[in-house]
Amino acid sequence: MKVPYFRIKLREEEKKYFLRVLERGFLSFGKECLNFEENIEKMTGYKAVFVSSATAGLHIVYKALEIGKYEEVLVPSFTFTATIEPLLHLGAIPVFVDVISEKYPVIDIRDAERKISKRTKAMVFMHYGGFIVDMKPYLEFCKENNIYLIEDAAHAFPAKRDGKFAGTFGIAGVYSFYGNKNLHLGEGGIVLTNEESLYKKIKLLRNHGIEVLPFEKKELESEYDIKFPGFNYRPTEMQGALANLLFKRIDEIQNKRREIYLKIRKEVENKFIFPYETNMPSSYHINPIFTKNEKERIDLIRYLKEKGIQISHHYPPVHLFSYIKERYGRLKLEVTEDLSKREITLPLYPDMENEEVEYLIESLRDF
Predict the structure, then answer these.
(1) Count of other CB atoms within 10 angstroms of residue 312
(2) What is residue 225's DSSP assignment?
(3) Residues 224-249: pLDDT tens digits?
(4) Which of 267, 276, 309, 361 could form a disulfide with 131 if both were Cys (CB 3.0 to 4.6 A apart)?
(5) What is the rounded distance in angstroms from the CA atom of residue 60 to the CA atom of residue 49?
(6) Helix (H) or strand (E) holding 346
(7) Is the pTM of this model over 0.85?
(8) Which residue, among 176, 349, 334, has the nearest Cα to 254 in the 3D structure?
(9) % pLDDT > 90, the chain
(10) Are strands 72-76 and 160-161 parallel, antiparallel or unpaired?
(11) Is domain 12-248 annotated with CATH 1.20.1560.10?
């Protein structure tokens, strides 16, 4: 048997609706995209800006907050490179902060306190794995130091804690709808904020600094104004259509993810280390485990490959990539580096067949 890391299955009625949208003859940002923004706003209670990717979303958040040359931003290294890349394009300096532990692989405030400076403008908190830890300490830290808290919530849609969705704790948050995410569009993202002026600026940055979107122009109207230079970070109508279709059954998707995750964890938790408590609020986006040591990880990867089980790695430390070492030298983050050497991400998706789940569990037990 082969178990892929991820697989997407659209329902027949979803495919038919997709075709109807194609037949409308308008494929750029349009009413489907606006409807999706409205769906997210109703769900979260926050303003939502639909963008072409989470990377684009982070870029325009950083830009809208005027994070610029030589300003510092506290970031994790135990994340995807997209958290950091936009900062480099803006001339800002990412200051890499270690994570707490294998139990809580998120930014360690103690290390952040050692690394904050007069040039620090923000902290980017990444909800690793889609779990939401207690955010109060991070909010207090940012408030005390008069810096922005930005949420990289790429893993965390649609998790919530204490009545608040991931992405709504800080000044802005960003979701990802990449191909293996809980709401899988191939590419796409949402920016959340409740700051009206920031919201307006982010919308302009998404669309070249133009207030009116192409489909909103009146008949024969061609004139427009540029408020300030922006980007083309608009999603397409096809992304919007798929987003609305999947949004209708997001509860079903989440329930299935949770069921599969908890079953796997229960059956093999005595053999491998799982981050976070079982009952912690989560989106159940990925299923990361840690082995006891690096050798066990290498052996497990080989074993699973032989079994036909595809896995992933979340994450190689960003501070060890060539482009970072060339800029800032060889940095040392002990916990991050240790966790990366022991992490494997197991398959987890709502369309996993029962036979695939059982085969995965059996294979892990027999390792």
Answers:
(1) 16
(2) -
(3) 888 889 999 999 999 999 999 999 99
(4) 276
(5) 11
(6) strand 343-346
(7) yes
(8) 349
(9) 88
(10) unpaired
(11) no
Q: Where are the domains of the chain?
A: 12-248, 250-366
Determine the Cα–Cα distance for residues 148 and 62; give it in Å rounded to an integer. Answer: 10
- 92 phi and psi, to 5 degrees? -80, 165
Question: Under CATH, what is the fold of the domain 250-366?
Answer: Aspartate Aminotransferase, domain 1 (3.90.1150)
Secondary structure E strands in 181-237: 189-193
**Tally of CB atoms within 10 A around 80:** 19
CATH fold match for the domains 12-248 and 250-366: no
Q: Which tokens sit at 300?
A: 């497990």
> What order do you get walking across the sheet with 47-51 strand by strand?
47-51, 189-193, 172-176, 148-152, 120-126, 72-76, 93-97
Encode burial over 246-282: b for 16+ CB neighbours within 10 A, e otherwise.
bbeeeeebbebbeebbeebeebbeeebebbbeeeebb
Q: Sign of torsion, CA 158 160 163 166? A: negative
